[in-house]
Amino acid sequence: MAKQGTKSSLHRQSKSITGKVGLLAKKSLKPQQTRQIIRRFHILQKNKHAILSRLESLQLANGKRDNYDELKKGKTYKTAFAEFKLPSKNAENEIYKIDSSQTICDLINSIAKIDAEIQQRGGIERYQSASTQGQNSNRGGDSSKKLLEWLRSDKYQSKLTNVNALEIGSLSPQNVISTSGVFSPVVRIDLNSQDPLIIEQDFMERPLPQNESEKFNLISCSLVLNFVPSHEERGQMLIRITKFLKKPDKTQLPLSCLFLVLPLPCVSNSRYFDNEQLLKVMKSLGFTQSFYHEAKKVAYWLFDWDGKVKRAKYAKKQLHSGPTRNNFCITL
Ligand SMILES: C[S@@+](CC[C@H](N)C(=O)[O-])C[C@H]1O[C@@H](n2cnc3c(N)ncnc32)[C@H](O)[C@@H]1O
């Protein structure tokens, strides 16, 4: 397996030495199961991120800060991790809430339980497998089919010579981005590579390009931003993406695009976000929407990049009310 960079502590986890993780990952899943796995995994990631942030501020106030690897070596973590048992099928899942009465020890305890739950549920491999299988039932297969359909339109057809692509969050080298023959090369990265042709790398730790030849004509970021646990980090990921795109040059008409895919509820049912807000955020980073498609559960965008990143600020503000809304947001 190709390896580059390191996984961020947030996503890093141990694999089962019994090899169970791999077996679980391959099992065929029903659509409802894939949704449950993906949803629970996102909740756990989000809770863990919030608990780690709270822990960091408590530790800073106490003048002593352990990094995540040190924390995992401590007795509190090890005991809670070893003792955690997944709830039986019909029992309620554990809720990992933060409240102001919690001590450092309580927080470490929760982190250990979340890590143990992720591992016992099959780890990131099972989440990826659910995502791959979910592609068929939820959105008619590989999302990059939509990308190629758009790129083959009159608007882009003439720009498709000598173009390369970076796929962030790649589950397979067999998707349409890779097999269309349009891009050469296609650089595929993922936090957890499932194929020797996918580099195991955190995009946030990928070394910045030193010159234009190390940049890309197209970046694909399909169902990745919603995996990133906080609104600030999602914004940072978008800013970072601009550093990897080739500067558009009007005389030679090169391609400089971002293909973005998000679960539809991120823009259709969030308290803090919608499509209008996304377009404002994107505009401030130099992106203009050229295509948009809304499927039943997923939304797709193709953005052109003009190379001009402004320093606009977008904070988390309530835009819509209602008890059944989610809290998805992207801030700059
Ligand atoms: C839901 S899967 C989607 C994969 C695929 N792009 C698709 O559209 O089906 C999200 C993937 O993004 C990867 N990912 C999340 N954050 C990442 C990061 N910072 N760098 C690289 N990969 C990341 C995860 O490991 C996971 O495999």
Automatic annotation (TrEMBL):
Binding site residues for S-adenosyl-L-methionine: G169, D190
Domain of life: Eukaryota
Keyword Methyltransferase in annotation: yes
Main subcellular localisation: nucleus
EC number: 2.1.1.-
Keywords: Methyltransferase, Nucleus, S-adenosyl-L-methionine, Transferase
Pfam family, one: Bmt2
Location within or outside the cell: Nucleus, Nucleolus
Role according to the record: S-adenosyl-L-methionine-dependent methyltransferase that specifically methylates the N(1) position of an adenine present in helix 65 in 25S rRNA.
Family under the similarity heading: Belongs to the BMT2 family.
HAMAP family: BMT2
Protein name: 25S rRNA adenine-N(1) methyltransferase
Organism: Lodderomyces beijingensis
